[in-house]
Structures are given as C-alpha cells and as structure tokens.
C-alpha cells in the first residue's frame, strides 16, 4: 500500500514538473508546448491539434465513469473538441489577413491580430487544463468537482470567442484591406445583429485575465474583486453587514463575481466609475509613490489664475489667450511640477547651482476624461522624471460629466500658453518641448497640438502618446470588441466615459453654454452625497469651484474686460480666485495639505472608513450622512418589519383602562405571541437581506429599474444602452483632422498594447500620419492591459513597458538626434 501511494505521489510530482517545463505563457511561444507538429502548417496549429488529442484522451477516460462529475467531465471535453472544430477555420482566416492591417512589418499589431492572440491564449489555457486533468486524474485526491467547473468555463470561453470571430468576419466585409474602420456608416447594433450575442460572463469568472501576462493576472483578478466588493459598499445604502458579507463572497465564488462585474458594466452609473477609479487617490494609495517610486526633489502644485495670457506666434506677433469659461465659468487651473533636481530660478525652491534643463515634458494624465489626476499617475511620473532628468509639468484638467468637451482641451491649451511664458520658473530653457499623455491624456495632447498649429503658436518638438483614444465614438472595429472582455475597461465603462465627455446633452449632465449672464451654477456641496444617494467626487476634480459660494458664468463683456486688463490687477472679483500670480506649494507642507487638496480623496476616504472600517466620523472628527435609497425598495420594507417588531417589544404605550385579570392575561399572551412572530419575521427578513447582493440602480434610466434578472442583461445587445451621437470634431477626435494640419504635426511616437480597445485608433492614426509624410513610429506590446503604466511598480512587464516609454521620449527630447533619419523613412 505504501508503495502504491509513493508511485502516485511520484507520478503527480513528475506531471507537475512536465507542466512547468512544457507550458509557456505567451501565445507567440505556444507551439513550444506541443511535441507534435503538423507537416506544412504553422507551429501554432500544433497547439490546436494537441488540445483536441488531449481532450479526446480525457473524454475516453471519463466516458465509463457513471458519477455525475465524471459524465460532466466527459461532456465538457467533447464540447471543447466541437468548439475547436468551429473556431479553427475562423481564426485561420483572420490569421491570414491580419498582417494586411499592420502599420508596417516592423510593428505588427491591429485588432485582428489581437483576437488571434486571444484565441491562441484560450487554446493554450485549455491545453494546460486538459493536461493537468490527464496527469492528475488517477490521483487519490483528484477533485472532479473543481475540474468540472474549470473545463466547462473553458468551453464557454471558447464558444464566446467563436461568436467574436463571427463578428470579425462581418467587420472584414465592411472595410477594404488595410482599413480597420468601416468605410460606410455602420452602427454597433448592426454589427451585433449579424451573429449571436456574446456571453460576457465567461470573461470575468474563472478564466479572468487568461489573455494577459502572468504578472498581470493576479493584479487584474484583485482589481475585479475590489470592483465587485466596492460596488456592494457603494450601493449598500448604509448596510455594512451586507456589503462585507457579499463582498467577501466574490473572493471565493468566480461565477458570482462575473455576474456582478457584468452587471456593473451594464448598469452602474458614470459616478460609480469615477468613485472607483478615485480609489487610486485614497489616503493609503497616495503614499505608495513616495514609498516605492524614485525620490524627487520637487513635487508641487502650481495654481494658475484665470487671467489673459499674452503669447508670441511663430510670425512674431503677440496674441492674447483668454482663460477657459465654457461649461463651468472662470476657474483657476492646477498643474503639478515634478523634477528630480532643484534648478536655478525654479520658483519656490530658493537658490540652486544646477542650470535649467534644456527640455521639458508637458504631460496629461489618463482616466477616461472623468477621473484621476496627476497625483494618481505619480507612480510612473517620478520614474520618468528621474530617468529623463527634465522637469515634468502635469495638468490637472477639469473632468466630465460636469466639465465635458471642450473644457479639458481648453485648459490644456491654456496651461501650455502659460508654460511658454514661464520656462524659467519651472526649471527649463524650453529649448525642447515634448508632449506626453496616456489614454484620455493622449487624446488631449493631440487635440492641443491641433489648436497650437491652428493658432500659429510654437508647436512642441515631439508627441508621445500611450494607448490613445483618437476616435471618440463606438465605430465598430476589431479592437473595440476587446472591451467586451477587458477587466479594467469594460464596455459599459468605456461607453459611459465617452458619452459623458463627448455627448453630455444626451446624459443630462452637460450644461449648455448659452446661459444668461450672472446665472448661478453649481455651488459647493456640504455633503458627500448627491440627491440620489451616490458618493460625490471632488468639486475641483470635476471642475467645480472649491470656494463656499457659487461661481458665475462669464459674459462677453466680462471677457472684454479681462482682455483689457490682462495684467490681472483689475480683474473681476469672483469667489473663485483673485490671485495675480501662480501660487506654489510643496507636496509636503507644514500642514500636510496642498492648496488644492482634493475633496474627492476626503470623500472616498470617508466612504471607505464608514462602510469598510465601520467608523462614524472622518479623520477630522466630522460626521456625514448615511446613504439612503431614493425610492421604496426591499431594504425599506425590511427595515419596517424590524421597526414593527421592535415596537411590539418595547414601544407599546401603557394601558390606560383597568382590565380584569383574565383579560389581562389573555392580552399579555396575545402580545407575547405577536412579539415572537414579529421578531422571527424580522430576523428571517434581515438574514435574507444581509446575505443578498445589493441592487445596482440607474436613476437616469427608468427602464433599467425593472430589470432585475441579470441574465436579461446579456440577452440583449451590449450597445442598447449607449446609443448617442458624437460630433465629427477633429479637436475631439484627432483622427478626423484635416490633412493639411496633420502634415504640420511634430514627430509622433505611439506606444500601445495588443489587448487595448483603442489599438485600432493608434494604428490608423499612425498610418494616416505616415501617408502624409510625417515622422511617426509605433510600438505594440504583448500581454499588457490598457492603463498598464499605473501598474509599473507591481508587474515586471509593465515596468519594462514604462522603460520603453522613457526611451521613446528620450528620442524626442534628444537635441543632437535627427529623428527623421534614425530609423529611416517615416519611422522613428
């Protein structure tokens, strides 16, 4: 008996060793895991054959097994074989035509290639799983139930990818070879009507993150669990026990987590997206860069007052740039200065013997146009400042939906004009200016470049854009479909952000720009809750004044007065800001609070402290209201039951009339019975309440309030909730810019990833610039998600990607390097 156990243990250990040696993690190297190769076929195809053979082996083994799990394993492996036979010819066709859509042979990458990589990753995942079953099925402790769920999840995943491949066939028919966007008008609804609806659950359950690098999978899984758990706290309406109980279940129940994430993507409001992403700026996360990133000598906020700025055009003429006023009126603008060294004449830093740097990096952060700030992007900005050895000026622009397009763009342009007049104060000679931005920030610097060229001002010497959305609308493209399986940028999140920024009137959030003079707008709220019981984010982050009183819209006469008094000495006295020069303060002041310490961070901290840490006060000892639902819900009725039960026990008024002993005993007996019944009913309803998931409601869309069946969310097209029009404005979507203006673009370096829903934007924009004769280059990285720069401290591959960003920016900053001839032709 001992010998048999020893044999089984040895067989298990040997199987584990073989798996470790046989299964690479990159789909590009997947063929290495297959001993057999198909004659005359690419090595990757051997992986498909190997999976079929392994599944057939396992199916033959479990076919005689009469147990429920044994038969489910048999059916699961047979189903996998059927899905492979269905997917193989579809992915084969896409694999053959995908190279036609690349930017060039040196930079392979487009949405079609991405889906081929995703399918290959799924096949590799299935092969690992099947071989794991094959090597362990004879073991004493083999868990059939566990592998049943894993195999069935893999089958569902492959089936959903097969549906995606059918959609890709439709997209191929809509555009000529080489064009990733349809040449004619086609809507997402038309695309999704061509094939079965995609089941999104499988992408967020047991197989979550299968398409990414191993170092990112754990991070993405953790973020998904946090998102699901945070949604419970966010929509708990004050029920701490429910949010903690249900939130904890997402750790151990992948299926439950998948259903919640899909529900969030389909139904959660843009305010939830803002609140969740603002967690990156909570008190704990704010300390991470200073603890883990490089140390910098300068990290301060500069407040630019809203006053006219006089700049000189390329023709030597002076022109006045007025401060932005659209949507939210006059506001001061915050920018963050980061530098690894103190330099001579750098404002607020005393004296320094180090001369100003020749270059400067003008940066815009990402966040879907609706969240985050320069502070949340310090994780990589500190590293960049250290390795580039130039000052970085990062812009904290106003956020949608309170400040939709074009407010943020106007603020970025205004900050650039201010920088042109203040090189000395930020520690540079301004000899070399490079723009840099990621995600939404990349869109803003591209739009800002167009405004600069149109105004005839000095353009930057180069643009660096990371995973940039350059076409702000859901034009069907292969890469856009990746958001249906993206853990960080789900379909609903992306569409809500685009809608809030580009089409505010359809959401009811945007403010028309034709209000009468002196009309009051939104005032600073004293409660962190809005009228719907949702968590508010910071007024300054949303572009709302932080002063106690409301601000006012600026009339044309006010603008004329501003222009006439561009010195700022006689500027109109408003409640926002009346300083005549930029105010500066170090990140770490004596009081520990910056001039623009964002109240969104306070609100998020209060939210977490109240509902996660079970505290009634914030860090300053102030109480804030409990979130309560707007309408009568299940929670209301449950609370009423509790109230009735408690009143029966302790709240009954004393008897006034004298009763005889018999009636008194009867009345007491009746009350005891009623009290017991009420108590048991209250306890039963409360138990059901605290163990149930909190409903996500959409107060802006009444029809979603009655859709309580989560399966119904998948039974319809995922685009049903996001039908909105976006103006074809080149400042909003730089891809639509006029060719004559694009020809004047400075050298451009684009870095993106294969699994980015915005990949096709980057490829098509780079192609357009290349066709016009511009200097442009593109890098496409494997296995990383959109927004990977924010994880550069946690994942090796993300850190390597950040280092590549630094190298590309250095090429644009290097004064002695002729970028037009470094790599030949139009490629950087």
From TrEMBL:
Ranges in coiled-coil conformation: none
Transmembrane domains' residue ranges: none
InterPro entries: AB_hydrolase_3, AB_hydrolase_fold, HSL_N
Biased composition, class Polar residues, residue ranges: 519-530, 576-594
GO molecular function: sterol ester esterase activity; triacylglycerol lipase activity
Entry's Gene Ontology BP terms: cholesterol metabolic process; triglyceride catabolic process
Residue ranges, compositional bias (Basic and acidic residues): 563-575, 632-642
Region (Disordered): 504-600, 619-648
Domain Alpha/beta hydrolase fold-3: 362-503, 728-789
GO cellular component: cytosol
Domain of life: Eukaryota
Amino acid composition bias (Low complexity), ranges on this chain: 545-557
Domain Hormone-sensitive lipase N-terminal per the UniProt entry, residue ranges: 47-346
Protein name (Swiss-Prot/TrEMBL): Hormone-sensitive lipase
Annotated source species: Parnassius mnemosyne
